[in-house]
Amino acid sequence: MNPNHIPVLCDEVCGFFADSSGLIVDATLGLGGHSLALLESNPKIKIIGIDKDREALNLANDRLSHFGDRFSAIHSSFAIGIKKIINENKEISGILADIGISSYQIDNPNRGFSFYSENLDMRMDLDSTIDAKMIVNSYTKEELNRIFMEYGEIKNPNNITKLILDYRRNRPINTAKELSNIIELNTRGKTKIHPATLIFQALRIEVNNELEELERFLDNTENLKNTKIAIISFHSLEDRIVKERFRLWAKNCICNENVMKCECGNNNAKGVNLTKKPIIPSAKEIALNNRSRSAKMRGFRFYE
Ligand SMILES: C[S@@+](CC[C@H](N)C(=O)[O-])C[C@H]1O[C@@H](n2cnc3c(N)ncnc32)[C@H](O)[C@@H]1O
After folding, report:
1. 207 near 132, Cβ under 8 Å?
2. Rounded mean pLDDT of the chain?
3. Per the structure, how many domains does the chain have?
4. Which of 87, 95, 159, 233: CA 20 to 30 A from 274?
5. For ligand 1, is residue 300 a contact (CB within 6 Å)?
6. Distance, CA 45 to ligand 1 centroid (Å)?
């Protein structure tokens, strides 16, 4: 088990589901850190875990097998996995999603998520056919610029895209180390974060279709009843999607902005937004686990 793996906002997650009973879906099981804490802290719940990473799933299964029939897991994307569980008519009292990559994935050099990895992969699901190496070596200038702008939030990615295109004209970029070096060696001035951070973020999001998956996951949960949902995200693009969706779900009036008078009945809220402001880690948690520093947790409760 990865010693660096510490589940983020763990007390807050356990507190959030402290009054739940019945089935909780841990949509991003990872190494099962949150599931373990939840099963230990609340004897009234059972958990079904979902993860698209089979390696993580196997480790979590071993770690949580002593809970017997209180724990089970499925290999799936969370958008499809949650739909499957809902279609089985299971009553879901809570859903947790701690989106992003796990310490296990970052620290495993074969997975290609870190700057110094000898691989350029970044797939969470090793069954998937698109990896970072394929994108970096085959996407056109326009395609690279688009993902660096949209997913890396880089205003003008032309210079970095050019570096990649120039390099790959002579030989393919085979490793994450090679890619981060190309960027680092050609970045002038000191940056607070590694100069390749946003490029790696963009590639990871593209490889794993992360934002679309999150949107589909939210689409598939929005008709639940009497369910609490908590989502932890690690960058602004994901947080914005969650924030906006919870805001929409909590709206009573769903009339078009242009109408003079409400025509919708003004009673369309699906539930209550439980966190007007996101819950963030304490200074103590950040000191213990620096990776938690950008985490934001938002919660929503669907009406009965
Ligand atoms: C931050 S980790 C979760 C760590 C977990 N909460 C724990 O305490 O061990 C995120 C996990 O979610 C998985 N994941 C991310 N996006 C996913 C998706 N769209 N569908 C299924 N699993 C996903 C990743 O493979 C990773 O294992």
Report:
1. yes
2. 94
3. 2
4. 87
5. no
6. 20
Name which residue sits closest to atom 7 of ligand 1, judged by CA: 33
Same domain, residue pair 215 and 287: yes
The whole model's pTM is what? 0.95
| Boundary residue ending a domain (208, 223, 258) | 208
Query: What does 240-284 look like in DSSP terms, one character per residue?
Result: HHHHHHHHHHT-S----TT-SS--S-S----EEES-SS-B---HH
For residue 98, what are the β-bridge partners?
232
In tens, the pLDDT along 10-39 reads 999 999 999 999 999 999 999 999 999 999
Ligand 1 centroid to 53 CA: how many Å?
Answer: 8
For residue range 150-198, what is the model confidence (pLDDT) as tens digits? Answer: 999 999 999 999 999 999 999 999 999 999 999 988 877 667 788 899 9
Instruction: Give the pLDDT score at 173.
Output: 97
* pLDDT higher than 60, residue 99: yes
Same domain (yes/no): 189, 143: yes
Residue 105 domain-assigned (yes or no) = no
Dist CA 148 CA 130 (whole Å) = 17
124 CB less than 6 Å from ligand 1? yes
If asked whether residues 93 and 120 sit together in one domain, one would say no
Q: What is the mean pLDDT of residues 70-99?
A: 96
Q: Which residues contact 5 (CB under 8 A, 6 or more apart)?
A: 30, 31, 33, 102, 103, 104
Q: Residue 288 has which token pair?
A: 């213990």
Q: Which domain holds residue 149?
A: 112-208
Instruction: Output the residue whose Cα is nearest ligand 1's atom 27.
Output: 30
Q: Residue 229 Cα, ligand 1 centroid: separation in angstroms?
A: 16
